[in-house]
Design brief:
two-stranded antiparallel ribbon, mainly alpha, 63% helix, 2 strands, binds zinc ion
């Protein structure tokens, strides 16, 4: 899948999960926490595509997400792609095909999603709100780039970086200094990566979801996707005209569901009979 559908699916899953947690598990969150979690999950839902680098010097090619912070993120994408290709070459078995680049390999596996979630959890427990602010800064940039890709292309990476800085500053002002379950950010990162894998698994090309368990004979990197009859192409009409809208509507509905008790409470306090 492409940027907008990935980012929207991340936001939809986090908002729906937060709503379910409040309704059925009595786990409520503040509006700030919900907003940060949603932005981080939407951004992390683009993180695995940081393995698609372009031409760093020319600022061209590569996945949307690799352009978020200009040459800085393009350089990181280049490194991630090379490391992924290295892991592929070291672990590939006899029937795994030769590869020229590392796209849709290591960063598209379950161990990667778990590792990113664990890393963010550790950062949050070690550095508290500073870790949350830092992670939000990066993920907010990814999410903007993914959601508004045509606008982001025109606006350029500097605007994206400034807006991400604004979001990080907002979190700095709003987050309490004492740790109030900041480790939750790890869950948002892990879930975002996982949602990305599921999204890509719906497409024709698929993802190596079983790695590092060898499946289907001498193959470590079996690409698992939907059968041709029900799969769709990345960035095709089904994705942009239907799926992305479904994710957007689900995210919107869950957002309304999460906000409505607070709004009703406010109206009641003004003496409006609702
Ligand atoms: Zn992908």
């Amino acid at each position: 899948m492409m940027g907008p559908a990935h980012a929207l699916s991340g936001a939809a899953v986090w908002l729906t999960g937060s709503w379910v947690a409040r309704e059925y598990l009595h786990y409520g969150q503040s509006a700030t926490t919900i907003a940060i979690g949603t932005a981080v999950c939407a951004g992390a839902a683009l993180l695995p595509d940081l393995d698609l680098s372009g031409k760093v010097t020319a600022n061209k090619g590569g996945a949307l997400v690799a352009h978020s912070f200009g040459v800085f993120s393009l350089f990181v994408a280049e490194v991630v792609e090379k490391i992924s290709l290295g892991i592929y070459n070291v672990t590939k078995m006899r029937h795994d095909p030769h590869r020229e680049n590392g796209h849709r390999t290591f960063t598209h596996t379950l161990p990667f999603a778990v590792a990113m979630g664990a890393l963010a959890t550790w950062l949050a427990s070690a550095f508290g709100r500073w870790a949350v602010i830092g992670i939000l800064f990066v993920m907010f940039g990814f999410a903007l780039r993914g959601l508004f890709h045509t606008w982001a292309n025109r606006a350029g990476w500097l605007v994206i970086t400034l807006l991400s800085g604004g979001a990080a500053y907002g979190a700095f002002l709003l987050l309490p200094k004492v740790n109030r379950g900041y480790e939750m950010i790890g869950l948002a990162v892990g879930v975002g990566c996982l949602v990305h894998l599921l999204g890509d698994a719906l497409t024709r090309a698929g993802v190596p979801i079983f790695w590092p368990i060898p499946t289907g004979g001498k193959k470590m990197w079996r690409m698992v996707g939907m059968p041709n009859a029900i799969s769709f192409d990345s960035g095709g009409k089904f994705e942009t005209r239907f799926l992305a809208w479904v994710f957007a509507i689900v995210a919107f509905a869950a957002g309304i569901g999460l906000l409505s008790p607070a709004v009703l409470e406010r109206l009641r306090s003004f003496g409006v009979g609702v």
